[in-house]
Write a structure and sequence with these properties.
The complex is a heterodimer.
Chain A lengths: L1 H13 L2 H19 L5 H14 L4 H26 L10 H10 L3 H36 L2 H14 L8 H15 L2 E2 L6 E2 L13 H20 L17 H23 L4 H16 L12 H16 L1 H7 L5 H12 L8 H4 L1 H22 L3 H8 L3 H20 L2 H19 L5 H23 L11 H24 L9 H4 L2
Antiparallel strand pairs in A: 1-2
Helix pairs in contact in A: 1-16, 2-4, 2-16, 3-4, 3-14, 4-5, 4-6, 4-12, 4-14, 4-16, 5-6, 5-12, 6-10, 6-12, 6-13, 6-16, 7-20, 7-21, 8-20, 9-18, 9-19, 10-11, 10-12, 11-12, 18-19
Chain B lengths: L1 H15 L7 E4 L6 H15 L8 E4 L6 H10 L6 E6 H8 L11 E17 L7 H10 L5 E4 L6 H12 L9 E4 L3 H9 L5 E5 H10 L2 E7 L23 E9 L4 H16 L1 H10 L2 E6 H21 L5
Parallel strand pairs in B: 1-2, 1-3, 5-6, 5-7
Antiparallel strand pairs in B: 3-9, 4-7, 4-8, 4-9, 4-10
Classes of the chains: A mainly alpha, B alpha/beta.
Chain lengths: 508, 319
């Protein structure tokens, strides 16, 4: 009851014509930022912070605007994943795996609707979860020490083997490349720079946004040039938008499971939306009866990661608000915004500044409804932006990629690095090596290593510390199962690995 | 609809690229961090009290913990009289450890510091350590039994605070001290509350909420005197350990500007530091006065760097 009263108070503050207008603008801009490769939620929000200051917005209005952008970007990321095979932002990476094959089969509209609804379900349930459980969930973060985090990352990497659609060794190779790249930069445990060759720009390591834009967007451009647009991702046609009720019903379980997994991953600081969507996808795949069709356009493979990443986006607000610990890059930027508005997130935020918390939650709910409307009935608007002729889109994608990356650090070094990743992505595509594990390696490798080394410092080098808590042991068991299950299941089912061709190469 | 998008993007670009203004402050980090805060607040107050006729433009130049901004100022903005750059203890720490690709502290001119965030040592609420002496004794008895968590990497300011404190308390084996570096103070707090680390060091402002909620217990604040709002937290000095560690907030300017221009910045910063607006900002953000200007500040920076270098050599960060 108290929750509802608080929520009513939140709505009474957040619903004014002006804030509604801001929410609509924020959702629209956010969806575009999310859809454009190179501009993700974190730099979208970062770009808008100075603007909200110069507009002189008060705390609540600024929060409404920026959280709308945040959620909008989480929705938007899927559009280019599905239509262009280029993830609009890093959590939308998993959506390319099944979303793009669906688009190739002429089911782009279905994929967009299913993923839009999945995003809504994920974000809505996560916001409710945030509302009801946030104060209790904060305690969960206290249970996770270095050993538990390390086990969690191991779980992610152990399930990787099941991901490469045709060759596990290639997936492992790709993950190793990613882990290697993650080692570049300042080593937190000794304070020494590694593999930087005295280059200042490498001190912070390689930004995964640089890698993702290079590996996906730039590589796609190279591929397009080579094939003269033949079987390139660019230029997928979109049919009439009908709501595929049967498909929605069929994927509802995937959405709910994805939401649950994503939310938990979001609540844990240091896991975040990308891990949420990854684990949601892998769990759905291993639980499904029709495993073989994953990676070839299974709608469940679209619903699960989209629900997962949007739920994680909501979940990541829990540690940000209750502990002041940002669970992802974007929440780090939002945290910065709160601090500049003189709002200090932490254990006392819910009691000392309830009006801020509840109007934030209300604005999340508003944004979510606005986004559902924008992303299902009005999806054509955004698709139009991406389905301009290739001679416009291609330079456009290239330009946005360069501008987006330049906006990260304002140095040309990152742009050169992005082109380097583009070449790498092109070569990997030629060799039929998946690029998703590279990104995962970069994204999780650092945190995984830091936690392992912290664990070793804490335990004076005793490795049994890694198995010293029930949570850690549980995660290890899941990791071992995740690693072994695909091997055994395959033998039991006597199903040889599927034809070793990439659907993107011979269809159409 | 497409025109809408174009209009929206055009509007965004125009707001982002505001007309060039005379004074510019570089914040060597993304919007929202401490350096960004320094730039925006100092810039705002300079305009409000009429020191500059227009808005101070804030440029965010992230990278290498301030190193990208530092080397850029040294190499290509060396004689720009309208430029100042936000700095803090992290800047001098990294300079001391030669983390700015060979750049040294004498390649810029240090203007001054107008506030500081006092360092603080906290333990979980159910910790057996009641005061600083308990903690120091435990480390002396068995350094492996006490793990410190902090919001910076090994060798960063949070780590150095622990080492300097223990050094002053008579424990000299810096390499034996257990420290885990996390991403920011709040992250370090959760590890301490969760019982993975036994104590935590950070800046007072970043952990105020956890102290007030009772999740952690402060055992010493590393300032000259007790901090207003936290009068019941004793200083380290009171407990017999003579250490003051303030994360100061200040600015530097390029080296090759004229002495008059340098003096102008010193005077302007002094006036900002004395303004009521700044006092209010400090009160709202848990900062304490920490005023050092001109030559005095340059001397402080040099001493600070020498001290950090000595400790860094002990722990093997510097050869």
């Amino acid at each position: 009851m108290e929750t509802l009263a608080n929520l009513a108070m939140g709505f009474s503050i957040a619903i004014t014509p002006f804030t509604l207008l801001l929410a609509i603008i924020g959702c629209f801009v956010g969806t575009i930022i999310g859809a454009l490769p190179g501009l993700g939620p974190s730099n979208g929000v970062a770009l808008l912070i100075p603007i909200s200051f110069s507009m002189g917005l008060d705390a609540i209005s600024a929060l409404v605007l920026l959280t709308s952008v945040y959620y909008g970007a989480m929705y938007g990321g899927r559009i280019s994943s599905i239509l262009l095979n280029i993830p609009g932002d890093e959590p939308a990476m998993m959506t390319t795996l099944d979303g793009y094959p669906m688009a190739k089969q002429g089911k782009a509209a279905e994929a967009l609707v299913v993923s839009g609804v999945a995003s809504f379900v994920g974000a809505l349930l996560a916001t409710i979860g945030l509302m009801v459980f946030a104060p209790y969930l904060a305690r969960v973060a206290y249970q996770f020490g270095p050993a538990e985090y390390f086990a969690l990352y191991m779980l992610a990497f152990c399930t990787l083997g099941g991901m490469g659609s045709n060759n596990q060794a290639k997936a492992a190779l790709a993950a190793a490349i990613g882990l290697g790249i993650a080692m570049i930069g300042l080593d937190k445990t000794t304070g020494m720079p590694r593999f930087t060759f005295g280059e200042l720009h490498l001190m912070d390591g390689v930004d995964f946004l640089v890698a993702i834009v290079g590996l996906f967007a730039v590589a796609e451009v190279f591929h397009f040039i080579e094939s003269h647009g033949k079987d390139s991702a660019i230029g997928v046609k979109l049919g009439k938008i009908l709501v595929p009720w049967r498909m929605l019903k069929q994927t509802s379980g995937a959405m709910l499971r994805g939401t649950g997994i994503g939310f938990v991953a979001g609540v844990l600081p240091g896991a975040g939306a990308s891990l949420g969507s990854f684990l949601a996808y892998m769990a759905e795949k291993s639980a499904a009866k029709d495993k073989a069709t994953f990676g070839q356009g299974n709608p469940k493979g679209v619903a699960a990661p989209e629900a997962g990443n949007n739920a994680a986006a909501g979940g990541a607000l829990v540690p940000m608000l209750t502990l002041g610990v940002p669970g992802s890059g974007t929440t780090a930027v939002l945290l910065a915004l709160l601090l500049t508005l003189n709002i200090t997130p932490g254990p006392l935020l819910f009691t000392e500044r309830p009006e801020v918390v509840w109007s934030l939650i209300a604005s999340l709910l508003i944004a979510n409804v606005v986004l559902l409307l924008m992303n299902v009935p009005m999806i054509k608007v955004f698709v139009k932006i991406l389905s301009v002729p290739a001679w416009v889109l291609l330079p456009g994608v290239t330009m946005v990629a360069f501008v987006g990356i330049y906006s990260l650090t304002g140095s040309s070094f990152d742009m050169l690095m992005m082109v380097g990743f583009g070449v790498l992505g092109y070569v990997m595509r030629k060799l039929d090596i998946p690029t998703v594990p590279v990104i995962l390696g970069i994204l999780l490798g650092n945190a995984m290593e830091d936690n392992l080394r912290r664990a070793m410092v804490l335990s004076n080098g005793d490795w049994t510390f890694l198995f010293s808590s029930p949570i850690a042991v549980g995660l290890w068991i899941a990791a071992v199962l995740g690693f072994l299950a695909p091997l055994f299941l395959r033998r039991l089912l006597k199903k040889p690995p599927l034809p070793t061709t990439d659907p993107t190469l011979n269809e159409d | 609809m497409k025109t809408w998008t174009r209009a929206a993007i055009a509007a965004l670009m125009m707001t982002a690229a505001m007309p060039a203004m005379a004074e510019e402050c570089i914040a060597p980090a993304n919007p929202g961090g401490g350096w960004d805060f320094t730039c925006r607040q100092i810039g705002r107050i300079m305009t409000e009290i009429g020191l500059v006729p227009n808005m101070v433009q804030v440029t965010n130049l992230n990278g290498a913990g301030g190193g990208v901004a530092y080397t850029q100022v040294v190499s290509s903005r060396g004689d720009d009289p309208a430029l100042f750059v936000a700095a803090s203890s992290a800047t001098t720490t990294r300079l001391a450890q030669n983390a700015f690709a060979g750049a040294t502290a004498d390649q810029v001119r240090w203007v001054g510091s107008i506030g500081g965030d006092p360092g603080v040592l906290v333990v979980a609420k159910d910790s057996p350590f009641q005061n600083l002496t308990d903690l120091v004794e435990a480390v002396k008895a068995d350094p492996a039994s006490v793990a410190f968590a902090g919001g910076s990497a090994v060798g960063g300011f949070d780590h150095l605070k622990v080492l300097m404190m223990l050094d002053k308390a008579g424990f000299e084996d810096a390499r034996a001290v257990k420290y885990i570096g996390l991403d920011g103070g709040a992250d370090a707090i959760t590890q301490t509350v969760g019982g993975f680390a036994q104590a935590m060091t950070g800046d007072l402002s970043e952990i105020t909420g956890f102290i007030k909620s009772g999740d952690v217990r402060p055992i010493a604040v590393l300032s000259e005197s007790r901090v207003s709002g936290f009068e019941d937290v004793p200083t380290a000095k009171e407990q017999g350990v003579n250490i003051v560690a303030m994360n100061w907030r200040g600015i530097y300017v390029p080296k090759d500007i004229s002495d008059e221009d340098y003096q102008k910045w010193v005077d302007m910063l002094r006036q900002v530091g004395e303004s009521d607006q700044w006092k209010q900002v400090m009160a709202e953000n848990g900062l304490e006065p920490y005023n050092l200007f001109g030559a005095e500040f340059e001397a402080f920076v040099n001493e600070n760097i020498a001290e950090i270098q000595e400790i860094s050599r002990e722990i093997g960060l510097l050869q």
